[in-house]
Design brief:
Layout (H helix, E strand, L loop, with lengths): L4 E10 L2 E11 L4 E5 L6 H8 L9 E4 L2 E2 L4 H6 L1 E4 L11 H11 L4 H14 L15 H13 L5 E5 L7 H18 L2 E6 L10 E6 L2 E7 H5 L4 H9 L7
Parallel strand pairs: 3-8, 3-9, 6-7, 7-8
Antiparallel strand pairs: 1-2, 1-4, 4-5, 9-10
Bound molecules: adenosine-5'-triphosphate.
GO molecular function, one term: ATP hydrolysis activity
Protein name: ABC-2 type transport system ATP-binding protein
Pfam family, one: ABC_tran
């Protein structure tokens, strides 16, 4: 079976500074994978490579079976992305934000509206569709961005620290929601975070530290008898509370 996301031997430098070193992992389709690492581990850099914001000659990246170097358009078409900083137009309504994005994907008219309605339903924000983004709280802005990332029906969803700046309730709400999307709809998810409480025991867990993978497997197996926070602290020396 093709993997949802696969990387092999990926390395990257900013000038002479190496920030990713031989990163390789593969996430089965329909799996929620947490990419856990302290600040500066290289998570955003890896996301930049996965989304082709930049490229590297070292290593291979595949999204839903499409090689990022050989067939970048096909790879990107199968991917939805939620970046760390929010990118909504705050003067537009939720629906207008989604409509604009649908148009970028060549969708318009009834087909676009049907996709927009479905995406809003999936994120439980259909009743807010007519509200301007500026009036929404952080949690609802994030839901809007996730809905927007799903409009073109991607197979893979990448989220770079999507709960940054949210309160505990909104954070738990978004984390649960994306776990459910994964379980119900077979979406492959890569969720970057530095917070261990966003990782469920049954999730696939990839621990990135100083540009290298330090652990890769099911979260429950990696943590063993200790809690994940303690395990993460021992592995990286980073106390997430101060991260
Ligand atoms: N444009 C850049 N030029 C030089 N160094 C950079 C650049 N961007 C990031 N870095 C460095 O690369 C390393 C990895 O950064 P990156 O942002 O990928 O980590 P991260 O795990 O996403 O951390 P954070 O959670 O803080 O975003 C850090 O040491 C960072 O200082």
């Amino acid at each position: 079976m093709r993997a949802g996301i696969a990387t092999e031997g990926v390395s990257f430098r900013y000038g002479r500074k190496e920030v990713l070193n031989d990163v390789g992992f593969s996430v089965e389709r329909g799996r929620f994978a947490a990419l856990l690492g302290p600040n500066g581990a290289g998570k955003s850099t890896l996301f930049g490579l996965l989304t082709r914001l930049f490229t590297t000659p070292e290593g291979r990246i595949e999204i839903a079976g499409q090689d990022m170097r050989k067939t970048p358009r096909a790879a990107l078409a199968r991917m939805g992305v939620v970046f760390q900083s929010t990118t909504l137009d705050l003067d537009l309504t939720i629906r207008q934000n989604l409509r604009y994005f649908a148009a970028l994907h060549g969708l318009s008219g009834r087909a676009a509206e049907a996709r927009i309605d479905a995406a809003l339903e999936r994120l439980a924000i259909a009743d807010r569709a007519g509200e301007r983004a500026r009036g929404l709280n952080g949690g609802h802005r994030r839901r809007t961005e996730i809905a927007r990332a799903l409009i073109h029906d991607p197979e893979v969803l990448l989220l770079d620290e999507p709960t940054v700046g949210l309160d505990a309730a909104a954070r738990a709400g978004i984390t649960d929601h994306v776990h459910r999307l994964c379980a119900d709809e077979g979406l492959t998810v890569l969720w970057a975070t530095h917070l261990t409480d966003e990782v469920a025991d049954t999730d696939r867990l990839i621990v990135l530290h100083e540009g290298r993978i330090h652990a890769d497997g099911e979260a429950r197996e990696i943590r063993g008898a200790q809690d994940l926070r303690t395990c993460f602290l021992k592995m990286t020396g980073a106390d997430e509370a101060s991260a």
